[in-house]
Amino acid sequence: MPGQLDDIAWPLSTQRLTLRRATTDDADAVLSYRRLPPVAEWIGPPPEDFHTRFAAPERLDVLLVIERAGVVIGDLMVKIEDAWAPATLAEQAQGVQAELGWSLRPDETGKGYATEAVEAVLRMCFEGLGLRRVVAGCFAANTASYRLMERVGMRREAQTLQDALHPSGRWMDGYTYALLAEEWRASFA
């Protein structure tokens, strides 16, 4: 059976970064960049009760922070999910895939940090957790996000029409990307 984030030996280290489980003490650091216009443009402005929501166990259970030289520069969501299956096979589909999401301080973009962090998380998902599939989605207009997905080997599986409400209040098109464990192994393992 695939693993859970609690099964990983934290923190994870890359050449330049440290990834670790988020704690309530990380709320101010995360809020400091999530409220900036280049980040809020895609995920919306933080709610007034951001600290309360951030501290919720279901939020901390899926959130990692990205540190460079001990400073939080971004975060990654790793939400382990069940795949669809008929009732007779539901047990085999439990916790076999993950949805990823990310945000990064705007002044830290363009330096390869997001790519490095997502590559580490993909390795963790496929090698450390034994997942079979990882997905991520974004607004079709979020070029930086979908290019990151393509850089790490994910392939576009779907384009949806006006399926999500952008923080601007407009309905926008979206992209869904995915990567299977065997695709990852063939290209990156």
Describe the structure.
- The chain is an alpha+beta fold and 189 residues long.
- It has one domain (5-188): Aminopeptidase, CATH 3.40.630.30.
- Helix content is 31%, strand content 31%.
- It contains seven helices and eight strands; from the N terminus they run ββααααβββαβαββα.
- The protein has helices at residues 27-34, 37-43, 50-55, 57-60, 113-128, 143-151, 181-188; strands spanning 12-13, 18-21, 63-68, 71-81, 97-104, 133-139, 155-165, 171-180.
- The protein has an eight-stranded mixed β-sheet, sandwiched between helices.
- Strand 5 (97-104), helix 5 (113-128) and strand 6 (133-139) form a beta-alpha-beta unit.
- The longest helix has 16 residues, at 113-128.
- The two termini are 21 Å apart.
- The mean pLDDT is 96.
- Pfam families: Acetyltransf_3.
- InterPro entries: Acyl_CoA_acyltransferase (IPR016181), GNAT_dom (IPR000182), N-acetyltransferase (IPR051531).
- This is GNAT family protein.
- Residues 17-182 form the N-acetyltransferase domain.
The low-confidence parts are none
The major sheet is characterized as:
8 strands, mixed
What's the structural domain tally?
A: 1
Estimate what percentage of residues fall within beta strands.
25-35%
Protein name: GNAT family protein
InterPro entries: Acyl_CoA_acyltransferase (IPR016181), GNAT_dom (IPR000182), N-acetyltransferase (IPR051531)
Domain N-acetyltransferase: 17-182
